[in-house]
Amino acid sequence: MNLFEATLERDGEACFARFGPARLEISDGCQAASRSQIVLGLRPESLSYPAQAGQQVLRAEVETVEHLGAETLIEVSLGEVEAVAKLGRQDHLRPGAGIELGVAKDKILTFDARDGSRLRAPEAGQ
Fold first, then answer.
1. Residue 76 and residue 73: Cα distance in Å, rounded?
2. 45-60 pLDDT tens trace
3. pTM for this one?
């Protein structure tokens, strides 16, 4: 799991998590967080390349590439933070390449920075 210390930012009804140069809209954690600091979680398999329509984009630089047959693991730099992505076969990716990874909003996990508990959006009607 890629874990990032993030700062919550509210913009009207929308809520965003900022970590390094990245800013992602989140659905869980905004109303539940009592502080502006959270931990953002992204599973390596939740990141896609190339980014798909409707996904949020993370601009990254490829650091390392490990080909595992039908899958490729890449380590990327997102400014000051690093992440791992587990992708389908990507023979053309090379260290130093600038890429755009995609992530769906519903795949972004949020955790309380104080105790590590999972933050979730309130259920409808609550």
1. 10
2. 999 999 999 999 999 9
3. 0.88
